[in-house]
Amino acid sequence: MEDQPQQPSRRRKGYYARQIEIEAESQGLTVEEYGVYKGPAYSGPKPYTSARGIRFLAILITFISATMFVYLFLSAAGLVYVTEPATVPGVILPVIIVAVLPTVAWRQFFKERKAERLRKAAGKDLQPPTRRSSMD
């Protein structure tokens, strides 16, 4: 029998969901209380992994997306001077991106805000995780 070549490892579905479960369990929290994925050893600055930081980012992304949407609309209508005429794919893809990014940002904000409220109601605090390399 022939040995089949090994396929390169593909990214597993649900990787971040499993990471959230691991971190929540290690801190004695439910997944709902843990909130959004904070990264290994809180890779992001604390203000950006809290509900307030995520709200700031969501507002910023919404503002930038709204500005881009208006510009795309005006350029598609021919009201803004552009070097080349707008094409359908050149307008549709940015519009989809502009619509999806704020939606994702606000969903993350509401998820983290709910988690902070649940932790506060239960009297629990989120501790920084230990480094994965030190756990071996």
What this model shows, in words?
The chain has 136 residues and is mostly helical. The chain has one domain. It is 60% helix and 0% strand. The protein is built from five helices and no strands. It has helices spanning 15-26, 31-34, 46-49, 51-76, 88-122. α4 (51-76) runs antiparallel to α5 (88-122). It is elongated and about 55 Å long. The two termini are 38 Å apart.
List keywords for this structure.
single chain; 136 residues; mainly alpha; 5 helices
| Helix/strand order, N-terminal first | HHHHH
The shape is: elongated
Give the domain tally. 1
End-to-end separation in angstroms reads 38 Å
| β-sheet strand percentage | under 5%
| Quaternary structure | single chain
Describe the SSE topology.
Blueprint: H1 15-26, H2 31-34, H3 46-49, H4 51-76, H5 88-122
Concise description?
With 136 residues, this protein is mostly helical.
